UniProtKB/TrEMBL annotation:
Pfam families: Hist_deacetyl. Belongs to the histone deacetylase family. This is Histone deacetylase. Keywords: Hydrolase. It comes from Hymenobacter segetis. Residues 24-282 form the Histone deacetylase domain.
Length: 300
């Protein structure tokens, strides 16, 4: 069993500039089914959660204004999306998918959200295509229900997980680790529990060596009992926004390192896809598909 959340609301219209990156959410499940990495039984349809699951990590006034379409023009510009009812439903469905993935990972060891990784959302504002923070909400759900005592968030998207870092700045039960492009978005970084900024052009060898030196030590020091992994593929050399130089094989080896450690330590892990903006959609879909292939080889 490889539980995978799928949010069907991706079909709703988005601005023209955002439609190409969104294709991966449709093509990735098709590819996994076609090649046999996943079966239809592996997929579950993401559902919006109760408001209380959102309000553990988001300000009530912000959430009310987001739900009712009362964001200011400036707030909309910061998110990169014009508000719509469909957009709001999409965001809460993504968040619900990650919470359900956490529930599934407790049973199966690993679970995925085919979307997720909205790590630029703060308690009271959205940024960078992120309106609500799904991994933060799922981590808070685990803690609130006693399913975890210490959570480690491993954010390997090329952009710093600034919203996640800010949300958990005063929460010792959640350790935030972000390894990202040092000169990439956001210009103003927050302070994670551990930040590893990378130089432009960082390649497979440099990247993997740094991760291999860091993550095993973190697991020993933090002693988490649950892990969230943000597996952005905007670290690829082909990515328009990333400025790093990883190959698709290097990206796969990154997944092997993270998921292999979780498997060996018997740590349940939720994987969210994060960013990916290569010119060719096949580069995005194949890099994401590799993450599922690695997990299927380890956990099934």
């Amino acid at each position: 069993m490889l539980p995978i959340a799928f949010a069907p609301c991706y079909a709703h219209p988005l601005p023209a500039g955002h439609r190409f990156p969104m294709l991966k959410y449709e093509l990735l499940p098709e590819q996994l089914l076609h090649e046999g990495t996943a079966t239809t039984a592996d997929f579950f349809v993401a559902q919006p959660p109760p408001d209380e699951d959102i309000l553990r990590v988001h300000d009530a006034d912000y959430y009310h204004r987001l739900r009712t379409g009362q964001l200011t023009r400036q707030e909309e510009r910061a998110t990169g999306f014009p508000w719509s009812k469909e957009l709001f439903e999409r965001e809460i469905t993504i968040l619900g998918g990650t919470i359900e993935a956490a529930r599934q990972a407790l049973v199966h060891g690993v679970a995925f959200n085919i979307a997720g990784g909205t790590h630029h959302a703060f308690r009271a504002r959205g940024e960078g295509f992120c309106l609500l923070n799904d991994q933060a909400a799922a981590a808070a759900w685990l803690l609130a229900h006693g399913h975890a005592q210490k959570v480690l968030i491993v954010d390997l998207d090329v952009h710093q997980g600034n919203g996640t870092a800010a949300i958990f700045q005063q929460e010792p039960r959640v350790f935030t680790f972000s390894m990202h492009g040092g000169r990439n978005y956001p210009a103003r970084k927050e302070t994670s529990d551990l930040d590893l900024p990378l130089a432009d052009g960082t390649d497979d060898t440099q990247y993997l060596n740094m991760l291999a030196e860091t993550l095993p030590r973190l697991l020993d020091e933090v002693q988490p009992d649950f892990v969230f992994y943000l597996a952005g593929v905007d670290v690829l050399a082909t990515d328009k926004l990333g400025h790093l130089a990883l190959t698709r094989e290097g990206c796969r080896r990154r997944d092997e390192l993270v998921l292999g450690l979780c498997h060996r330590h018997r740590l349940p892990v939720v994987v969210c896809m994060g960013g990916g903006y290569s010119e060719r959609i096949i580069d995005i879909v194949e890099a994401h598909a590799n993450t599922y292939r690695v997990a299927a080889g380890l956990f099934t």
